[in-house]
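Recall the central idea of this unit: under ordinary conditions, the amino acid sequence of a chain determines the structure it adopts. In this exercise we apply that idea directly, starting from the sequence alone.
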Amino acid sequence: MIRLAANLSMLFTEHDFLGRFPAAAKAGFRGVEYLFPYAYEPEELRAALDAHNLTQVLFNLPPGDWEAGDRGLTSLPGREQEFKESVSMALRYAEVLGCTRLHAMAGLLPDDADADVRRAHLDTYVRNLQFAAGELAKVGKTLLIEPINGRDMPGFFLQRQAQARDIVTRVGAANLRVQFDAYHCQIVEGDLIRNLETQFPYIGHVQIAGVPERHEPDRGELYYPAILDRLDTLGYRGWVGCEYRPQGDTWAGLGWGHAYGLTP
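Accordingly, the structure predicted from this sequence is:
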């Protein structure tokens, strides 16, 4: 059965951040995710979850200096200590929030990256993921990596599904999985259901959005009833994160989710 989680970084932005928790619960969501929790104390977020009977499904490790252009630290040579500190901070939040999945964004390649630079990023990526997976395993949590399309995030180190499978194999950690975002996969590779089937043994979380504008899942070129049905028949029992930007008012665009328990 498909279980939907609201991405509060994108949905219900008509409210301030803490006001998005009751809005998500009222709409019928039982799980929430978001990019980063670090502007709030974890106890404050825990209280918001408890007050509205919500499960914290996912959030990202600190990404570095977002305003300066960082999009993750995991593959960046020379910033290993900063990455280790980001793991420690994320775990502190995850313990309070009861969150079992953490996403480590890969980071960006330099514009002029040659083969040697790419190799250095790969080696750093693998070592950092091995460290993080080890730390998360101590407390029973899953580490995620996500291929992100280079149109939305130019230069992102991890873009393709096969590349993600190779990384998981290289790292060799049982608690390292792939965050399969249908929006990113469709933009980079297409053939979405076949890619989903191939990637399925590696998947630890799924996210959806319409393509190409990243609006509601019923707007654009993808037919999500078929995609979600295939995900269900494959035996997926995790959460599906709704990581899209509403075309207008969030509530007005929730009709697509009636079949999955949303009640706007």
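The domain at 3-253 is CATH 3.20.20.150 (TIM Barrel).
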